[in-house]
Amino acid sequence: MAIFFGDDYEEKEEAKALIKSLAKLIEKLGDLEIEDVEIRAEELTLILQPMVGVMAQAPQLLPKVEKAIETLLKTEFSPPVETYPGQIAEVQIGATRSDGGSRRKVVRIGGEKTMPFYSFEALNPNRLAFAMDVFDMPVALAKSVKQHFEDVMHDPADWAKRCVEDFGAEIISLNLISTDPLIKDTSAKDAAKTVERVLQAVDVPLIIGGSGNKAKDPFVLEAAAEVASGERCVLNSANVDNDYKRIARAAKKYGHIVVAFTPMDINNQKKLNRLLLDEGLSKEQIIIDPTTAALGYGLDYTLSLMERIKLAGLLGDSDLQMPILASTSNSWGAREAWMKSEEWGPREYRGPLWETVTTITAMMAGGDLFMLSHPATVRVIKRLMENLYGEVDTDQRIQDWITDIGM
């Protein structure tokens, strides 16, 4: 390999002197874990080849390099943060009879004093919570999901019972999509009756979602809030494009929680949270939904945004001190989760794995509440969480979660 030191002999010698000086500085680090390698000036010539030509022409930079490295060697690094000045609000979902509701038990999320699973810093008071999606009408689902619910998809109450009794759902996420004017245009009053039937069918807390129609959803959620008065449900969702004030008023009047939804923008999230607080909601009545993308479909944005929000709240930003909702069932929107492809492997395994990995990523990023679709995802995630909390037999292999995706 040819190395350019310059045409002049003196330039070559200056370059060699530079390499030798850098070698001596590197040796001062002392802690480099290099096995069976002897660092010599000649070898560093190859390692530092890209900078040799420049440095040979500018030997006057050598003192600055030496000073920078000497400063680095003397730098004292602070220990990891073990306590944060802020704390995430605790949100109670559901209400028992003693609370004025009819749920068998409540689910509490949030209350964090540190990032998830950082038990060496602090013990967070509440575990992550998992809801399963139910719709008020048959919908187009991936085959591997649909096969578990096909016989109950015409009755959301039976669908909810299947999720709770057969698959261990601790929360039901009821999506009233038939209210969309472009689908069935079900009235808010009739949608409220569906909510009432589901409340009677299961005894776990509810997340109540609309269709996404910004004009109609506030009226649908208001009617649902009234019929579920005292049950402390989650109204999903309020955003700056719909009548968030109507939703906030309904939550205050009937004792519910509001999801603050924004499309991946921390500044807009802060703005919406502040608007809801100004409407009289407490931090204990707000859950943040910063948008969850699927693995391979923008999950890196979700990961970084959730971490920023959680850390900002822990560091004292009162406008971001609310638990985070992750709609990880959105992962089924990625073609890799459902598309038939021999090259990608069987969809029956690939789809649940896609949802599972998306969920695990959101768990580590700071999510508190997760909406899931596939029963295998629920089972695997719960087992994984038990492993992370040290509750599983040590003889059990953690890698078995991969083969736990059984149909």
Task: Give structural notes.
It is a single chain. With 407 residues, this protein is α/β, with parallel strands linked by helices. The protein folds into two domains: 66 residues; 312 residues, Alpha-Beta Barrel (TIM Barrel), CATH 3.20.20. The chain has 14 helices and ten strands. The chain has an eight-stranded parallel β-sheet with strand order 8-7-6-5-4-3-10-9. A two-stranded antiparallel ribbon has the order 1-2. The longest helix is centred in the N-terminal third of the chain and has 21 residues. It is globular, with a radius of gyration of 28 Å. The termini are far apart. The N terminus is likely disordered.
